[in-house]
Write a structure and sequence with these properties.
- This protein has 325 residues and is α+β, with helices and mostly antiparallel strands.
- The chain folds into 2 domains: 138 residues, PurM-like, N-terminal domain (60s Ribosomal Protein L30, Chain: A); 165 residues, PurM-like C-terminal domain (Phosphoribosyl-aminoimidazole Synthetase, Chain A, domain 2), CATH 3.90.650.10.
- The chain is 31% helix and 25% strand.
- Strand 4, helix 4 and strand 5 form a beta-alpha-beta unit.
Length: 325
């Protein structure tokens, strides 16, 4: 508990782990706020991360915190720049584990091109848990560029950047003690969104596919734009390992959480170059065109099944998997 007191133990914790791992000229000033260069338009986001277990195949809570924050900024078309992070530590958290998580977080921030410019640490009673809260700032492109789920138009094409369900399956496998080769897809997607913008494609909407899964995201697009969206089951990529786990446990990949996948709606005439830009980006090798915006009942999402039927999809009801991110 002394590490959360604001005294010497707190200072030692900050200097031995956070200042060492996140070192940069802005953070080194150790003021109550960071003064950084700005832009005419900013994207701002905040998020909290409570995933269990803290470390999992393909990532950990630190990597997840950076990726989640960066991806939220990137989906607005912004270039992610700055992150702050607040750590809530339960009594008994192992300092080696904390240091490894901070190291992972710093490495992911470098990959994403963002600076961690401020933070906070609190210690509470507990059993060795760890939680992270972040705030993120990104710079918007010059001009009047804007994407929104409400911009989807009839004839537009829906693209998905890769396989579904990897993160959800990884976390669930770890909790259930199931041994397999599935790894979380946790990854920063800023380069992919930058490539999409540079391609010249008319982008209507972008969203990272996290809790609630693809079906929930696209249902929100349909409702927001008052359009009907249809996706093709046979075109949606899912790895055989995840598909096998879903078969055993009765899961649906369309409602499983991800941490390194995005969906984009683009004008039909630009579908090919948008898909090419995704496939040419890191983490986008399995990108695919999975559907389109069609004429039909407003605010609905339809799935054209492998057997030729039509299934109406809703948003996720209830809790898919608690503490997945």
């Amino acid at each position: 508990m002394a590490h959360g007191s604001g005294g010497k133990a707190t200072s030692e914790l900050i200097s031995s782990i956070f200042a060492r791992r996140f070192s940069n000229p802005v953070l080194a000033r150790m003021e109550d706020s960071a003064v950084v260069p700005g832009a005419s338009r900013l994207a701002v986001t905040t998020d909290s991360f409570v995933v269990t277990p803290l470390v999992f195949a393909g990532g950990d809570i630190g990597k997840l915190a950076v990726c989640g924050t960066v991806n939220d900024l990137a989906m607005s078309g912004a270039v992610p720049k700055y992150i702050t992070c607040g750590f809530i530590l339960e009594e008994g958290v192992d300092e080696e584990t904390l240091d490894a998580i901070a190291s992972s977080m710093a490495q992911t921030a470098r990959e994403a091109g963002v600076l961690i410019v401020g933070g906070d640490t609190k210690v509470i009673e507990g059993k060795g848990g760890l939680y992270i809260n972040t705030a993120g700032v990104g710079f918007m492109p010059e001009g009047d560029f804007e994407v929104s789920s409400s911009f989807c138009s009839e004839g537009d094409v829906i693209l998905l950047s890769g396989t579904l369900g990897d993160h959800h399956a990884t976390i669930l496998s770890a909790r259930m003690g199931i041994s397999n080769t599935i790894r979380s897809d946790c990854a920063p997607l800023h380069k992919m969104t930058a490539a999409l913008l540079s391609s010249g494609a008319k982008i209507r909407a972008m969203r990272d596919v996290t809790r609630g899964g693809l079906a929930t995201v696209l249902h929100e697009f349909a409702e927001s734009s008052y359009k009907c969206l249809r996706i093709e089951e046979k075109q949606i990529p899912v790895t055989p390992q995840v598909q096998g786990l879903c078969g055993i446990l009765g899961l649906d990949p369309l409602y499983m959480g991800n941490e390194g996948k995005m969906v984009a709606v683009v004008a039909k005439e630009d579908a090919e170059k948008a898909l090419s830009s995704m496939k040419g980006s890191e983490y986008g090798e399995n990108a695919a065109v999975i559907g389109e915006v069609i004429s039909g009942e407003e605010g609905t999402l339809l799935l054209h099944t492998r057997t030729g039927g039509i299934r109406m999809l809703t948003e996720l009801y209830g809790e898919g998997l608690p503490r997945i991110c």
